[in-house]
Prior knowledge:
Elements: E1 7-8, E2 11-13, E3 16-18, E4 23-27, E5 30-38, H1 43-62, H2 65-81, H3 83-94, H4 98-118, E6 126-127, E7 134-142, E8 145-149, H5 157-168, E9 172-176, H6 182-194, E10 202-204, H7 209-217, E11 222-228, H8 231-243, E12 247-251, E13 256-260, H9 266-278, E14 288-294, H10 295-311, H11 330-345, E15 349-352, E16 356-357, E17 360-361, E18 364-367, H12 374-377, E19 384-390, H13 393-401, E20 405-406, E21 408-412, H14 416-425, E22 430-433, E23 449-450, H15 464-467, E24 469-477
Parallel strand pairs: 1-5, 8-9, 8-11, 9-10, 11-12, 13-14, 13-21, 14-19, 18-19, 21-22
Antiparallel strand pairs: 2-3, 4-5, 6-7, 7-24, 15-18, 16-17, 20-23
The structure holds nicotinamide-adenine-dinucleotide.
Amino acid sequence: MSASAPVRVQHLIGGEWTGSPAGERRNPARGDEIVAEIPSGGPSDVDAALQAAQEAFPGWRRTPAPARGAILMRAAELLAARRDEAARDLCAEEGKTLTEATGEVQRAIDILRFFAGEGWRIAGESLPASLPSTHLYTVKEPLGVVALITPWNFPIAIPTWKLAPALVSGNTVVMKPATLVPVSVQNLALALLEAGLPPGVLNIVHGRGSVVGDALVNDPRVAAISFTGSVQTGLGIHAAGSARLARVQLEMGGKNALVVLDDADPEFAASVAAQGGFGLTGQACTATSRVIATRGVHDRFVEALAREAEAWRPGDGQAAGTRMGPVVDRSQLETDLSYIDVGKQEGAELVTGGDCDDLFLCPAVFTGVKPAMRIAREEIFGPVIGVLAVDSLDEAIVLANDSEFGLSGGIVTNDMRAAMRYADEAEVGVVKINRATTGVDLNAPFGGVKSSSSGTYREQGNVAVDFYTRLKTVYLGT
Ligand code: NAD
């Protein structure tokens, strides 16, 4: 698990590690450091993984759910014992700070523990029957083989929050991690195998989305697909999966707004906005990318936010004291820089930031942003916040909801009535009052509305099991 020597990443198929290196991943903070050598799978790897998952399903399904949970619990303890190494690997492959990476690995450990407990609780219900001497009840059954397709920005947390409910419910899995972050998923798999997960229950195929992901999505052996990533990819997966009646869950992008009202302390509001917008290098689906401030606080807020931005200097995530890591790769940097150019061309004022050294991008703050501007409408996925000025809470809510996305949204105010009105009217899946738009608890349902989500099922919390199970109704006459 060391980040100093390249990790040999392999596919996991039927309990065997296979595949030769076809590419590499470098540390975004240290371009000369090769973090991992990675195979690139093709249709035959997907076929073998699906076959292994299919063969493992009957045995795994028959394993009592508490026993399945016990394996997750053991995996949690094994990962906990290696937490610092796993965090260093995550930091090296994705670039986020060691503090953020450690928090993310801890999150994965806690998710495994949480769903281990769910093994004791996955239950149907008993119902009154219309006929005498008849028992009527429901059971939650696993779906079969499920495909899990994950993005690069949470290399271990997102795979875990899909995998843990899928496994504890009795499904077998083929996972396709993002190509930029192959190591963290391998660390998770190593812990699960060592904890006693039978061969074939979890399979991993690395490789390009258009090859491995596409083959998975279109294979009739896959009963359900859980995807987190961009809207464009998600819509293609939805079309293909739904056409053959596979169950599909999509969690996608955001253009998350934070409303700041006149009564807010501008320094506190700026710290909330910066945490949401610059934490994780702005590379979070729940990142704050718009602030909608009423005019009485607007100027003082912008001054405070500019000071915050200047304090979030980017650096090597592994160096002590770094608050913000590099952008994940050159392609994402180019996206960020192009949006910074677009913002200037559209007439917004760049108050601070936007300059970069290699992949280290200084957080950018724009003012004078208008609702029609692209930087107010499109997901950037970088440390860029645009501030819009409004006259009232009414106008703020209209603007906050004027988005194709609806993932998270926040408000900073001490006015309880205003906060609760915002909570009622915000068209989002998660509302944060006086807290950053990022950061969610693992025991609470998570997901978006509008183009942020397929809106079918929520992830996280005990309801996450619903996506991975179906109800069967049983009538028993005696
Ligand atoms: P992406 O859509 O490019 O890739 C996501 C995954 O899909 C990767 O594993 C990729 O290889 C795979 N993929 C690509 N093409 C595919 C295809 N044709 N068929 C099947 N799979 C395919 O997204 P990304 O750049 O990795 O992640 C960033 C995006 O993820 C952002 O939009 C962000 O908002 C979103 N995200 C959402 C959440 C959430 O919970 N809502 C969480 C994190 C990230």
